[in-house]
Write a structure and sequence with these properties.
Distance between the termini: 46 Å
Number of strands: 8
Helix content: 25-40%
Number of domains: 2
Shape: globular
Bound molecules: heme C
Largest sheet: 2 strands, antiparallel
Strand content: 5-15%
Radius of gyration: 21 Å
């Protein structure tokens, strides 16, 4: 009897010690670099392409008009921060911060090195771990030149004075995410474009395709379902499921030619916020079609080439199937 009591006490003490450890633990991080990036026209342009087309930073960090198809960013709100809708079912009150150069409500007082660290390593200026819904696990593969271009663009964004709350994560997710950040300790070279599939993988890391196209269970990708779609997104009254983009013939993109793939994206290239149709259950989507429709031919071909190399997974998805909130 006594032994059992000791055992229980011992276990409770261990659990308490574990929790204390996790609560006090700081995320794995390194000091930010002291780099001061030279702003050039080429970097600004490259940064604009990554921010606005490839990585859709604006899509997460801006208020959007959900009454319109494609949910365009509200004019004057580019990068100004937003709290995510509750219906998305994330573990807490998740807020994408204001990343414009406003000195009080944005990141105007951050050094270039601090910005690079947040983007690639997931550590905020104050040393706190960022919730990995911010896709820094993919961005850690972003080349030095690309992340520097991105920072040049961030520095040039019109500052918007817009205060947003800080992310509040539920327990125990708030403790577990401390393991997500990881310093980038070696130089990251520019991607080789000569091997389209390999280059396509680089683009997928920046484009967050895996994050939306892979179902998750408690914040981790579901085993064996990489890019197989079926992730359910609820926003307001609408629902959309991500598509299966593995090369499976019946339920994925297996039968798609490269041309069909490119045409699908280019089909959205005329879309603008002004001409966007009213959002309906049939057209509602989170897929950043408008941004991605303006990728270069080379990049779309590389994305296609990479997607041909992933494991085909049979998973039939009906993206616009009406679903009611749980
Ligand atoms: C899928 C949504 C999403 C995308 C895409 C995204 N972010 Fe974030 N980002 C977030 C969220 C959410 C946070 C805050 C996490 C937290 O508070 O724990 C964040 C945090 C940040 C921070 C830290 C700000 C601070 O005050 O701590 C920076 C800088 C940042 N993002 C820049 C970017 C850039 C640049 C891109 C594009 C390359 C990008 N983000 C793409 C969701 C996103
Ligand atoms: C923010 C979430 C999100 C991101 C990021 C995202 N997608 Fe999607 N994608 C979706 C959703 C939801 C659908 C299904 C609805 C639709 O077709 O618009 C979809 C549909 C598609 C389709 C159409 C498939 C079909 O059968 O019609 C393709 C192709 C695609 N995505 C490729 C990509 C690629 C490549 C990337 C990365 C560069 C990517 N997606 C990034 C959410 C996303």
């Amino acid at each position: 009897m006594k032994k059992l009591a000791y055992l229980i006490l011992g276990l409770a003490a261990l659990a308490a010690a574990g929790l204390t450890y996790l609560t006090l633990k700081s995320p794995n991080s390194a000091p930010p670099s002291t780099i001061r990036i030279e702003a050039t026209a080429a970097r600004l342009e490259r940064g604009r392409y990554i921010f606005g087309n490839l990585a859709d930073c604006a899509g997460c960090h801006s208020e959007r008009d959900w009454t319109k198809a494609g949910a365009p960013v509200i004019a004057g709100r580019n990068g100004a921060g937003v709290a995510f809708p509750k219906e998305l079912g994330l573990p807490g009150d998740i807020v994408a911060p204001n990343i414009t150069p406003d000195p009080t409500t944005g990141i105007g007082t951050w050094t270039d090195g601090e910005k690079i660290r947040a983007i690639r390593e997931g550590v905020s200026k104050d040393g706190r771990a960022l919730f990995p819904f911010m896709p820094y696990k993919g961005y850690r593969h972003m080349s030095d030149e690309d992340v520097q271009s991105l920072v040049v663009y961030l520095n040039a964004l019109p500052p918007v004075n817009h205060a947003v709350a800080r992310t509040k994560l539920n327990f125990p997710v708030n403790l577990f995410i401390k393991d997500a950040p990881q310093p980038v300790t070696v130089p990251v070279a520019a991607p080789q474009t000569s091997n389209p599939a390999k280059y396509g993988e680089y683009l997928v890391n920046l484009g967050g395709c895996r994050d939306c196209h892979t179902q998750q269970e408690r914040g981790t990708p579901k085993e064996g379902m990489l890019l197989a779609g079926g992730f359910v997104f609820h926003v307001g009254q609408f629902t959309v499921l991500s598509a299966n983009i593995t090369p499976e013939v019946e339920t994925g993109l297996g039968s798609w030619s490269e041309q069909r793939f490119i045409d699908k994206f280019r089909g959205y290239s005329g879309h603008t916020p002004e001409t966007a149709a009213q959002a309906t259950q049939a057209n509602f989507t989170l897929m950043p079609w408008t941004n991605l429709s303006r990728l270069t031919d080379q990049d779309l071909k590389a994305l296609y080439a990479f997607l041909r190399t992933v494991k085909p997974v049979k998973n039939a998805v009906e993206p616009h199937k009406p679903l009611t909130l749980p």
